[in-house]
Each structure stands twice: as structure tokens, then as C-alpha cells.
Queue: 2 jobs
Job 1
Amino acid sequence: MLIGAEYFYQLLCIGQIKLKTGTTILQRTRFGWVVTRKIYSPSQKVNNLCHLSRSTLENAVQRFWETEELPTRKILSPEEEDCEKYYKQTLEKLSSGHYAVGLPFNTKKDELGESYKTALTRFQGLEKRLTTDAKLYEEYRSFLKEYENLGHMTRVEDTDKQNEYFLPHHAVVKNTSTTTRLRVVFDASAKTTSGVSLNDTLLTGPVVQQNLFSIVTRFRLHNIVFTADIKKMFRQVFIRKDDRQYQKILWRNNPEEVIQIYKLNAVTYGMSSSPYLATRTVQQVAADERQTFPEATDIITKDMYVDDLLTGAETVKRTQTLKTQISGILSRGGFNLRKWASNHPQLNERSEQTTEEPICFDFSDVHKTLGIL
């Protein structure tokens, strides 16, 4: 008969006799008297274990951390691998020092429909809004005028409206900006007649920069710190000529003029692949210069979040050296740093090169970087 262990104490009754043998006990239960005693095994086995290791404690600890550590190389999805492969295939260094890349299309490229009519309707609506705000209209004109003067967009005479993509555009205003209050953003998510947008046909690519938590944590460990950002980072990366037909816009300076067609020559705000193409090219600049300045290029690789640089060193002299090296490396790829700021007054000295951008090397007042105090 098997009885559950939870009933053991319910079966015991008052009455217990210990025999002279010492280990034998008579216990009264609801079923009568029971006999209990320790059972001795006629033979006891003794097991001797011996462990021999030729490795040192340091090697054992190292193997432990190698086993527990996360892989340093990010594992890419098939789509991310295709995007990275296509980037390397189309990457080109221009005579100006800038880089040109191709738009990373996926398999839906041939599904794009006609987009001109939608872009025209959106532009006419935009123009009506701009005519009611003279200040906004003038800022919009100035932005696109600069766009054209810098070679980031070019007017097109002959065009095939059926086999190209026209980007609607609109203004984004940031009153707190110290450099550009208004920015024109292009809508690559606008659907064509087939229901497919340009963003639907593009690979977004992997994240190539480190996460924000790691960057900010390292930034707080430095004795001397400095910050900066890349001027017009997206637009310093050009799109190869064969792909510029998918970056066309409609524009005119006033309603009395004829609507003109322009093509955008550089990486464009509002396209799903743009963050990857821009940040990947910054990483490429660092990779190309790694043999010359290994520490500075390592900082570019690890301490940049999109277009913001947050880094530092232990001494003022070392910080000044890194600042010079990082600026030189990025400028060779067409990326210019601006809006410098530091927590040390000695870094308030301007370089011999003049700049139109405001420079601040004072953290005595509130200074924001990445939108964080």
C-alpha cells in the first residue's frame, strides 16, 4: 500500500518505545505499531575523483568570458546583407573627395507606377499655403536656392514622367535651431498609381553605428569632452547618376513662373535608405583612413550618433590632437564638422580656418547634444 507523504504525521499516534539497541524505535500509528531503524549496508563503496588541468587560471577565466560574451560582429538579415553588398558594389570616390552610392532597390522596383500627377497636386497645395506666409515662402525659396547652388539639385529639361519618380515635398520648421530654422523634407512614401511608393522599393539597410546608451556612457567617462555635428551630412553623399531619375521634384520661385522639374543629386531627407547610406559612408571614410589615424578613426566609428560626435580624452593636449585629426579625416570625405562645444576653456581657441557656423566651447550655460541636457 502506498500512502502520500503529506499524510505521514496524520497517521502518528501517542506512543513510542525506544529499544536498548539505540537505533530501533517502536511507533504507534492508526494502523498499529511500526518498527523503524537505520539500515546498514554490508559494504560501502568509496569513489575517488581526480581532476587534472594543464590550463592556467587566466586561460580559464578568458575562456569563460569568451563563452559568455555577445558576438562583436552584428548578425545581418538577408535583406541587410544584400544592402551592404550593393553599397560596396556601387560605392565610388569622386574627385571632390565626396562619395557616390547607388539607391539600394529591392525586388519591387519594377512595380513603381506613375507619380507625376500626385506630385503636381501636392505642389499646388504647398504653393497655396506658402503664398499666405511671406516669411515661410522666402525661407523655402532660400533653402532650395542653396540646394541648387551647392549642386545638390539640378534643373532638368527633358524627362520621362512615366518611368521616373517625383517626390512631393514640404517644410519642417524648428524654431530652436541655431543654423537652419526651415528644412525641406521630401516624401518618398507617396504612393504611385500602382499603390507602391519609392520607399516600398528601397532596402533600409542595417544600423551601422553603436547604440545611443553606449555612446553617452563613454562620453561621461572622459575628463575633457567635446561635441560637434556634421554640416548637412546627408547631402554630402551623392547618388550615382543612373538613380537620380527616382529623385525628381517640382518647383518654381513664384506662381507666375512655369513649373520646373529638378533632380536631386545627393542623399535625400525622407527616403528610407538615407540614414543607412549617410552613416555607412561616414564609417567608410573612417575605414579608408584607419592606417593613418587608428585612434581618431576608431572614435568616428564608435562615438558618432547619426551626425553628432560625442567624445573626449584625459588631457587638453590629447583632446586638441583628436579634434584636429577627426576634422581632417571627415573633411577628406566631404564631411565638415561644426557647432563645436567643450567643457574646457582652453579649447575656446579658434582654428586658423574661418567658418560661418557658430562655434561654442562653453558648457557653463545649458548646452544640448542629441536633445539631452
Job 2
Amino acid sequence: MIANAIVEAIRLAVTRIPDDVVLALEEAYGREESEIARFNLENILKAIDIGKTESIPVCQDTGTLTFFVKAGVNSPFLGELEDAIIEATRRATEDVPLRPNAVDILTGRNSGDNTGRGVPIIHWEITEGDEIEVAVLPKGGGSENCSALAMLTPSEGWEGVKRFVVAHVKACGGKPCPPVILGIGVGGSADLSLKLAKKALLRRVGEGHPNERIAGLEGEILGAVNSLGIGPMGMGGRTTALDVKIEVAHRHPASFPVGLVVQCWANRRAFLRIKPDGRVEVWQ
């Protein structure tokens, strides 16, 4: 039963782009003056509509599946959840369908079902209570290839963060299929900053950080990135990014880690909540 619900959450994530993302793309279309930029955004919106109406993946690269699990320690389903996620990934590959995207690092052979050593990727957070919440984040290879890590010095600080992000987005150009959403993790360690950056992509487009200072930094970086003129699909325009999301953690006195995860326009996500009596809610 749990695996069935996870399959449906995966299906929802890859076939329907969330309304907040669609709205941001529509607003970008309205702002663009370039004919090429408007043409690219028009085709993106058409692809989204086809995926929704025909219940097929919006993009042929259905990505690597990442799951963020927030599990109540008293949930009766905690012990079986990992197996359910792996089984659901296999079934979704066949039923949705998903493109097989799990390749053995040594042999180069594709597992054929999106499972293998270390995949699907599952991040765990154990909390009090008896409910489980799972976030599903499919991430395509083109945008993932533009992820980056910078180990800045504390003296570089937030100005260094802005310089690093803008320079890296400029270097990536059209590779991540813009307009993008930028997840930025600052603080912690090298690995934690990248995890925070990816988790930041789960926030709704247009939703600023609750911390006023961080929300201001998100806006500053968004403005700087959009001034680059890379535009939709890298062919020029006013909209290179739809949004910037920053998450933070305390850092070591000698370090200022910055993780950057770039998401393409197909900002896919879905959520499910598992009640202790087995009832499941699925939403975006």
C-alpha cells in the first residue's frame, strides 16, 4: 500500500509541474521582449500542458530520484519505508514510465529500473510523532551537471557567495535548460551545504525565506543572475532564473562552504504524508 502511494507521488512529480512554477513561467513570458525568448517559453508551457493532460513525463529525462524523508519515530511504517521507496522506484520506471537513469560506475551498464548502489537517493530525518512525510525530487542530468561547491574563506562572506553563484551560472550558460531555480546551501560542511541546496528546491517558487536578511540575499542574487541575459534555453532574454532559494547552517570558524544546485525549468516535486493508520495524502 505504501509503495503504491509512492508510485503515484513519483507519477505526479514527473507529469505535472507545480502551479507556482507554471505561474512563474507565464509571468516570465509576459515580461520577455525577445521573440526567441517568448518562443522558448511558449514551447515550455506547451510541454507542461501536454504532460498534464496526457499524464506523461514533461521531460524525457525523468532524472535521478531523490527522497527527503521526515519520519516520526513511532510510525508503524518506518521499518518498511526504505524497501517501499526502492520498490516504488522500480515500479514507477515501468508504469509511468521513467527513463532508466541508473548506470553502474564501473561497468557502465544501466540497471534498467532506476535502482542500484546508492540510488534512489534517500535523506533521512527522524522526528517525534507517528507520521511520515516524504518529498520526491526528480532531478535531470543536465542541470545536475551544473551543481558546484565553493569552500570560501570567512572573509569572503556573503559577497563571495554572490560572486561565486553569478560567475558559475554565467559559465553554465544554457546547459541547465534555463530559466532555472537556484538552490544555495551556506554553512555546515561541504556535504551539508550541497544537501541544503538541493532541499531548498522543495520550497515554492516566489516564496521568500522567512528570515528577512536571507530573503533579501535571495532577491539580490536573482537580480544579478537575470542581468546576465542568458535567457530561456540559453538563447538570450530577461529571465535566466525564476527564483533563488537559500538555506543555511552554522559553520566552522575557518570555513564558509557554499553548495549550489541548479534546477532546470522543469522544477518537479511531490509530497506524501503517511498516517499511522495507513492513510496517505499526496500533493504538490
